[in-house]
Known about the structure:
- The chain contains 17 helices and 19 strands.
- It is of the alpha/beta class.
- The protein folds into two domains: 12-136 and 321-448, nicotinate phosphoribosyltransferase; 147-316, Aldolase class I (TIM Barrel), CATH 3.20.20.70.
- The strands form four sheets. A seven-stranded antiparallel β-sheet has the order 13-12-1-5-3-17-18.
- It starts with 11 loop residues before the first helix and ends with a helix.
- The mean pLDDT is 97.
- One of its GO terms (molecular function) is nicotinate phosphoribosyltransferase activity.
- It is an enzyme of class 6 (ligase).
- Keywords: Glycosyltransferase, Ligase, Phosphoprotein, Pyridine nucleotide biosynthesis, Transferase.
- This is Nicotinate phosphoribosyltransferase.
- Residues 8-130 form the Nicotinate phosphoribosyltransferase N-terminal domain.
Amino acid sequence: MTDRTSALLTDLYQLTMLQAYFDQGMNDIAVFEFFVRKMPEQRNFFVAAGLEQVVDFLENLAFTDEEIDWLAGCGRFHQRFVDSLATMRFTGSVQAMPEGTIFFPDEPILRVIAPIPQAQLAETRIINLLQFQTMVASKAVRMRLVAPQKLLVDFGLRRAHGAEAGLLSARASYIVGFDGTATVLAGMRWNIPLYGTMAHSFIQAHERETEAFEHFARSHPHASTLLIDTYDTEAAARNLIPLSRKLAREGVSIQGVRLDSGDLAEHGRRVRRILDAGGLNDARIFASSNLDEYKLKQLVDAGAPIDGFGVGTRMNTSADAPYLDCAYKLQEYAGLARRKRSEGKATWPGRKQVYRSHDANGQICGDILTTEDDIQPGMPLLVPVMEAGRRLAVVRPLESIREHALAGLSKLPEELRELAHAPPYSVIVSEKLRALAAAVDQRTDSALA
């Protein structure tokens, strides 16, 4: 299921550059690559995500009649250029790291090869899609690493930065090991398992708390998790015991309770004792309330008897690292390697490949960043995704992407799995790539002289 993205959902400078390319007849093949420049202080690795949405965007890239008419009348562009946009489609190729692949700074995770107007126009949306899902996946995976045996559910739609962000957060977090989401559309679109409980408003709408519990349990006799912290958490847990016995005689069971405030660890201990003493040993305790990987680790390390967690705002906004220092840069045009040399933002030129090696225990132990034609030891990470403007394979099931991500995590060295900052993973820049950069610099310097 694809939602078309307007070709006008872009930065103005993309279109102003396109008109200048048009005026000068510049339509040669360009090569752009997407990469992240720096690792945030709180991260040790990234997880690539968002490729499927990029492919959808490129396959459907086109200007509608309405958009063409608006461009013609906005006063910024001449008619011949606007007319040329009516037939623009993406005809290029794409190579990329499969979604769910672990990667590190300066490693390209996507390469676009296309006539420069097409590759240029795609820049804004590609960054928008890859940056966001990669950011969320790289945050969510830390929660899975600190709570490997716990149920983890995405609860973040309501506080996400817009509807698309909330939907794609569900997807990105599921890729890296979350068990499901509360976002219903994500269940329909990608078959992500759905989880949900109730809001405090449901409790407050009833005169008696136990009446609310009974009504909800009868309405959902095999899928009821009851929110018990609206008034007095432990009192609500105690009141569940006689209600559960009454409902059990009618074949209705209470699957669990949810805690959403206060000292979750202490409430979890008290509630667990009450439930066990009342015969509700199988009822799970689920907790939410501004959770992130640090709070999850505290609860897990403290041995809190909590079976699962709903994680929302701090994951969906990646609260401690809310953006990636990423870029989509020109690396080749008209057959010549290109390179940006701006202070602090220099790029490695040309079409590149990343080779990854593993140690005797199967753990990843080092990458080599080199030119596309320089074969190195290890496994090449970028693979063909699109040719002549069309995808090369059927849409990859999300479960397959998830399996790839979890397999990669199993090969992650222990120090990189920790929340604390670890020594940087080894990424070696090959001599051939360094030589290419020097040659590009020499050519550029000669042109500037």
